[in-house]
Amino acid sequence: MRKGQTLADSHLVHYQHVELFSHELQMKEECILAVFVKFHLQTVFELDLNLVFPEECGLRPALDVHRVTHGSEVTILGEAPWQVALYANGVRFICGASIIANDWILTAAHCVEDFYWDSPFQIQAGTLTHDTAGQVHEVSEIFKHPLFDSFSLGYDIALLKLSTPLNFTDAVQPVCLPPPGDHLPEVGSYVTFTGWGSFGEMRGPITRNLQKARAPVIPNNICQRSLTGFHVLPSMFCTMYDTGYQDTCTGDVGGPQVQEVNGRWTIYGITSWETVCGKAYSPSGKTRVSSFIDFIYKTIREDD
User: Fold this and answer.
1) How many alpha carbons lie under 13 Å from residue 6 in its C-beta half-sphere?
2) Rounded CA gap, 190 and 259, in Å?
3) Residue 179, number of CB atoms within 10 A of its CB
4) Which of 1, 13, 90, 235 is the 20 to 30 A CA-CA neighbour of 268?
5) Phi, psi values for residue 148, rounded to 5°
6) Locate the Peptidase S1 domain: which residues (predicted)?
7) 238-281 per-position pLDDT tens digit
């Protein structure tokens, strides 16, 4: 007890120290509990997702070697086994899309705008030509990103739930998703895309046979310089050639933009928009999939 301090004061200081110590201990326990709960929920969350997403993804079992060229036909069934065709009312081709699980499909939100198509949707998988039957499945539910804007094409991503699961074969396989927070693809790298897009003509006739090509990723600020009245968002990325190589065009929209990582193919982009098809210095835009991993996981987890 300090000089001039009464016994009551001494007890008060003691109790204050005890109370402070108890408060600090409680805070530490709460922090430990919060970390434990977060870890537990994350573990449960990952376990739930493991039940949805297949362990094997991004593989092409039909191929022994990878063949990718500029603007050529896909000649081997199973070269892009995650590519599907999206149809309205079973007869009208709408867009491309990608398999990410046996009953989940990833595409562009503007492909499934309510006011644009007033009919049921189907997907066709495991085929090189969009007008011949592979595996055909009805779409039972559509989940567009809640912030999707049809004018700016921001948040141009949607998930389609199938009424019946796909049967995985050499010609039908899921593509891998990138990790959350990943800002890939890197500028200067090439993405491979597939689709039934027209040859160098906006709104021209789509091709019958599935096409493939590669295009270089450019910085968003360089992409922005080529555009007027349109804002390139961080959740987008662009590709552009300085020559007349083929890029995405009408009919490719909604389809995958992939890269091979450690022997597996990962979808980094969804074909979203283009300026002029196949012309030099004319960029085309993609939805950056890594910006929407939380949306994908949350949607699937809450629905299943």
Assistant:
1) 3
2) 7
3) 10
4) 90
5) -60, 135
6) 68-301
7) 998 876 556 677 778 999 999 998 889 999 999 999 877 767 78
Q: What is the DSSP letter of 146?
A: T
The tokens describing 70, both together, are 């500029």
**Residue 54 pLDDT greater than 50, yes or no:** yes
- Per-residue model confidence (pLDDT) at position 232: 94
Please check whether residue 265 is in contact with residue 185, taking contact to mean a CB–CB distance below 8 angstroms. no
Instruction: State whether residue 142 is helix, strand or coil.
Output: strand
- pLDDT (tens digit per residue) in 175-185: 999 988 778 89
CB 204 within 8 A of CB 276: no
Predicted confidence band at 55 (pLDDT cuts at 50, 70, 90)? confident
CA distance 136 to 125: 7
Q: What is the pLDDT of residues 83-92, one digit of tens each?
A: 999 998 877 8
Distance, in Å, from the CA atom of 224 to the CA atom of 209, rounded to the nearest integer, reads 32
Quickly count: other Cβ atoms within 10 Å of residue 222's Cβ: 14
| Cα gap 194→179, rounded to integer Å | 22
State how far the Cα of 86 lies from the Cα of 106, in Å rounded to an integer: 11
Per DSSP bridges, beta strands 121-125 and 104-107 are unpaired
